[in-house]
Model the fold of this input.
Amino acid sequence: MTTTGHVDVLIVGAGLSGIGAAHHIQSAFPERSYTILEARDAIGGTWDLFRYPGVRSDSDMHTLGYRFRPWTQAKAIADGPSILRYIQDTAAEAGIERHIRFGHRVVRAAWSSEEARWTVDAVHDGAPVRLTAHFLYVCSGYYRYDAGHAPDFPGADRFRGTIVHPQHWPAELDHTDKRVVVIGSGATAVTLVPAMADRAAHVTMLQRSPTYIASLPAEDPIANRLRRLLGPRRAYAVTRWKNVAFGTLFYQLSRRRPNVVKSMLRKAAARALPPGYDIDTHFAPSYQPWDQRLCVAPDGDLFRAIRHGRASVVTDRIAEFTETGLRLESGVELDADIVVTATGLRLLALGGIQLTVDGRDVKLPETMAYKGMMLSGVPNFAFTIGYTNASWTLKADLVGGYVVRLLRHLDAHGYDQCVPTNTDPNVSERPLLDFQAGYVLRAIDEFPKAGSRAPWRLGMSYAHDVLTLRYGRIDDGVLRCRRRTGDLAHSP
Done:
């Protein structure tokens, strides 16, 4: 196999995280070379992949947007196409596009301590491609892009209508005047139901159990006013911290006073739904707030669709599909022309890349995540996993900044390798994501572990991570650095 080039930093993934990572590297080290390998044929990652009606983010764009590039549109809860344009524009304005190799799926990355470099194997148009890099930075997220989670429903093969998973939405699918059943109660279902209800004959959200749903304004009036008063950049910074503070306080209240938050959400739902609506059956989950991610209904769109009779919620279990719809365990039958299986996602650790260090395959579940962004025993490597209780990009930006600080540290001391090493016998293993969502529980055993104490614990506090990743010491006694010709040692 022929090696097609060497770069200082190799980034995997050209989605929200990868474009942000490239911006950090390019801004800090304009003289250094970098390449982005993207498995698909377009920029945007998740925001290019998902094309279902109404696709949007649950996070506001003042925190989902990049720290270095203000979001200037009026809507804070933005739709997918707007987010995609934002990512594309960021890449175009910084000249990042010319560093991307599309259609390159990375399958293996092998580290050599002797050479202090990664050898990365990818597949492009069915042919093997090889590159080498000094530092490997994986920004592939954790969703499996080729398939979502699709349970095997009894009788689905005899249904005469259309069954579609949101991850593979057919562009030609027309739901106008059709009876639609959306199976699921997570963020995708909560988005789809009101979006389809405008044109469908009726949309039913069929859920096994309820989810916490909060109604938030699609536009942030404070942010829009600040933008007029302070200008986009200063207003963006203020709004970003305002939203971080509000989100943190609400999360802490949810964990410490769950009954208070449950009461708040229940009362808000009661105000938005028709009088006498059975909230306890359809909008009162059995788990505590933030055991799973809170869903957002911008301007209460889901509640509004129910109130106007265009949508309804059924809480029951599926017994089987019929020729004309679904039969539920209660005996109720739901007629449908289209069934949308919004049944969840599948996770894939590090995009499925097999890592090797000095000839030995790395078994991810046997590694531990250092500061939530590096792996024990894996040199010159970083990855991005965002917060489960806040915007993904808040963490992605911090990881990008830390990688810059780390590379500068290596330069300043003449090192060419760094590796997190766990020698603390008092650190016990924890799941990397302490989150009860089904898509996490189905795959968490395939991921690296977190530890019981810093710096191995994956924090979920942006303010704490700002102090740790943006201002904390690089030479913390755990991250070990060396020169190729020297012995492994703590950095001074």
In short: The CA atoms of residues 115 and 484 lie 7 Å apart. Residues 486-492 have pLDDT under 50 and may be disordered. The radius of gyration is 24 Å.
